[in-house]
Amino acid sequence: MTTWIAIGATAAGCYLVKLLGLSVPAGVLERPLVRRLAALLPVALLAALTAQQTFGDGRHLVLDARAAGLGAAALALVLRAPFLVVVAVAVAVTAGVRAL
Predict the structure, then answer these.
(1) DSSP string for the chain
(2) Which residues contact 98 (CB under 8 A, 6 or more apart)?
(3) Is the pTM of this model over 0.85?
(4) What pLDDT tens digit does each residue of the chain (100 aa) get?
């Protein structure tokens, strides 16, 4: 039963956060700082999630094939490869290192 209470509380919290976001005046959203934060925050959160998934394993720091794939993807990005090529390079390098 406590699981359903947690699910209901989470759903209500998500709805309230969405409602709060819709009730913000337009003048606040048009400020340069808010616009810049809205543009940069998703990128920062995605980078943090990627780093946590790549280098973390529970409570331990791990350096394995995923790190090699991330490094190869970063190199492909520096070389201005298209997104699908970046993903393919990361997958290929990760698989290759795991096969070794």
Answers:
(1) -HHHHHHHHHHHHHHHHHHHHHTS-HHHHTSHHHHHHHHHHHHHHHHHHHHHHHHEETTEE--SHHHHHHHHHHHHHHTT--HHHHHHHHHHHHHHHHH-
(2) 65
(3) no
(4) 789 999 999 999 999 999 998 898 988 889 999 999 989 999 999 999 999 998 988 888 889 999 999 999 999 999 999 999 999 999 999 999 999 9
Please answer whether residues 90 and 72 qualify as being in contact, where contact means their C-beta atoms are separated by less than 8 angstroms: yes
Return d(Cα 85, Cα 73) in angstroms, integer: 9
Amino acid symbol at 32: P
Q: What is the phi/psi pair of residue 79, to 5°?
A: -80, 5
Q: Of how many residues is the chain composed? A: 100
